[in-house]
C-alpha cells in the first residue's frame, strides 16, 4: 500500500497532469475561439448595419439623397412592410416547429427595428396578411396579435417630434378572408386588435386612404361588406372633389388589375364549388372593380397620388393612367407620370426580408406631391439564424479561453 507521502505525490502528479492537459486544450481552443469570435463579429456587424452596407441608396429617404423639400408641406417618410404572415404552433407541434416560429418572429422584428432606428419614419404600414391564416380560432388570433405587437412591431420604437407616428395595419386575405370567406366575426376581431379596415386620414397637403379591397369583387359571403366598401370609396370621392389639389396615398392588400406579364402573378380568380360560387381566391382586383376604384379614389382628370399594395410576394411596380379614347384606365409596367402602384415585396425570409420606403415631397412648380419608392432588402432568414448560432458558439468557446488568459 502507498503511504501518505506517496499518495500525496501521486495526487500532485495527477493534478499537474490534469492542469497541463487543461492548459493544452485551452491553448488549442484559442485559434478556433478567435475565428468564431471574428465570424460572429462580422456577421453581427452586417445584420445590424445592412442598410448602410448594401443598396445604400435604396435604403434611405429620397430627400436624404439631396432632393430639396418644401418645408411648408409635410414630408412623407413611410416604411411599408408586405405580408409578414405570422405563423402559430398547435398543441401537437414539436420543439423544432416552435423554435422556428420563435426565430421567425425575431427575424421579422429585427428587420423592423433596424429600419425604424435607421430611417426614423413618420408613418408605418403593414400591407395585409399580418397573420398566416384566416381560419384560426379566436384564442389563437389573440396569441398571434400579442406576438405581432410584442415581438415584432413595437410601435414605441418609432416616434416623431410629437412623440407619435401614424401606424396603418391593412387587412389581408389571411386576416379576414377573401370576399367569399369574410364574416362579421373575422372583421370584428381584426378591428379590435389592428384597427378599422376602411378609413382615411387627412394630412397636411395629402390624405391617406386605407381600404379593404378584398370585398370589392364577388360573389361575397356577406353583401354588407361590399356595400360598405363602395360607400367608403364614394365618401373618398366626395372628399377628393372638395379638395382636388390634395394627393392620395391608397393603401390596400390586393393589387389592382393588370394583364399577365406585368407582374409575377397574372389575373386569377377561384370560386367555391357551391350554389353561391363565393369568391375563394384572387391575384388582382377585377378590371371592372379597378376602373371603378380608380375613378373614385383618384378621378379621371389630373389624378394625384400613389398606391401601396401587398399580396404578390414577389413585388411589382406599375402605373395607371386614364385613356379617354377608350373610357377606361390602362396599366403598364414600371413607374409612370400618372398613378403608380408599388406592390411591396414580402418581408418573409424566403423573399429576402424586404422593406419599402415611400418618400413624398411637395413640388412647388407642379403644385402637387411627388412620390418616390425604393425597396431595401435584407437577406434570407438562414444568414440571420447562422449569426445567432455562431454568436452562441463563439461565446461558449471564447469564455473559458478568456478566463485562462486572464489568470495566466
From TrEMBL:
Q: Which Pfam families match?
A: Metallophos
Q: Which GO terms describe its molecular function?
A: hydrolase activity
Q: Which GO terms describe its biological process?
A: GPI anchor biosynthetic process
**Transmembrane segments annotated in the record for this chain:** 31-48, 383-405
Q: Which Gene Ontology terms of cellular component type are present? A: endoplasmic reticulum; membrane
Q: Where in the cell is it found?
A: Membrane
User: How does this protein lie in the membrane?
Assistant: Multi-pass membrane protein
Q: For the Calcineurin-like phosphoesterase domain, which residue ranges apply?
A: 79-314
User: Lipoprotein: present as a keyword of the record?
Assistant: no
Q: Does the keyword Transmembrane apply?
A: yes
**Name under which the protein is recorded:** Calcineurin-like phosphoesterase domain-containing protein
Amino acid at each position: 500500500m502507498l503511504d501518505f507521502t506517496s499518495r500525496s505525490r501521486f495526487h500532485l502528479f495527477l493534478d499537474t497532469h490534469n492542469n497541463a492537459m487543461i492548459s493544452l486544450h485551452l491553448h488549442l481552443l484559442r485559434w478556433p475561439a478567435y475565428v468564431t469570435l471574428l465570424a460572429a463579429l462580422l456577421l453581427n456587424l452586417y445584420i445590424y448595419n445592412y442598410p448602410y452596407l448594401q443598396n445604400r441608396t435604396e435604403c434611405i429617404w429620397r430627400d436624404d439623397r439631396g432632393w430639396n423639400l418644401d418645408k411648408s408641406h409635410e414630408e412623407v417618410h413611410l416604411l411599408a412592410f408586405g405580408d409578414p404572415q405570422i405563423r402559430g404552433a398547435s398543441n401537437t407541434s414539436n420543439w423544432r416547429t416552435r423554435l422556428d416560429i420563435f426565430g421567425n418572429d425575431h427575424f421579422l422584428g429585427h428587420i423592423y427595428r433596424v429600419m425604424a432606428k435607421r430611417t426614423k419614419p413618420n408613418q408605418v404600414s403593414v400591407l395585409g396578411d399580418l397573420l398566416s391564416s384566416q381560419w384560426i380560432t379566436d384564442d389563437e388570433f389573440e396569441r398571434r396579435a400579442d406576438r405581432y405587437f410584442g415581438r415584432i412591431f413595437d410601435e414605441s420604437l418609432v416616434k416623431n417630434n410629437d412623440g407619435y407616428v401614424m401606424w396603418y395595419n391593412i387587412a389581408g386575405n389571411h386576416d379576414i378572408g377573401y370576399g367569399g370567406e369574410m364574416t362579421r366575426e373575422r372583421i370584428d376581431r381584426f378591428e379590435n386588435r389592428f384597427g378599422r379596415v376602411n378609413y382615411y386620414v387627412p394630412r397636411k397637403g395629402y390624405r391617406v386612404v386605407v381600404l379593404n379591397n378584398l370585398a370589392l369583387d364577388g360573389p361575397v359571403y356577406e353583401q354588407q361588406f361590399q356595400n360598405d366598401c363602395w360607400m367608403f370609396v364614394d365618401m373618398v370621392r366626395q372628399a377628393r372633389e372638395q379638395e382636388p389639389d390634395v394627393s392620395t396615398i391608397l393603401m390596400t392588400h390586393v393589387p389592382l388589375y393588370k394583364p399577365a406579364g406585368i407582374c409575377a402573378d397574372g389575373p386569377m380568380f377561384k370560386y367555391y364549388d357551391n350554389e353561391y360560387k363565393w369568391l375563394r381566391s384572387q391575384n388582382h382586383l377585377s378590371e371592372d372593380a379597378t376602373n371603378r376604384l380608380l375613378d373614385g379614389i383618384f378621378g379621371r382628370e389630373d389624378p394625384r397620388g400613389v398606391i401601396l399594395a401587398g399580396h404578390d410576394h414577389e413585388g411589382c411596380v406599375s402605373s395607371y393612367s386614364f385613356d379617354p379614347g377608350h373610357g377606361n384606365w390602362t396599366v403598364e409596367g414600371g413607374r409612370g407620370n400618372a398613378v403608380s402602384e408599388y406592390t411591396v415585396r414580402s418581408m418573409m425570409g424566403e423573399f429576402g426580408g424586404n422593406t419599402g420606403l415611400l418618400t413624398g415631397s411637395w413640388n412647388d412648380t407642379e403644385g402637387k406631391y411627388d412620390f418616390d419608392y425604393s425597396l431595401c432588402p435584407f437577406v434570407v432568414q438562414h444568414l440571420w439564424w447562422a449569426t445567432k448560432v455562431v454568436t452562441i458558439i463563439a461565446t461558449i468557446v471564447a469564455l473559458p479561453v478568456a478566463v485562462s488568459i486572464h489568470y495566466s
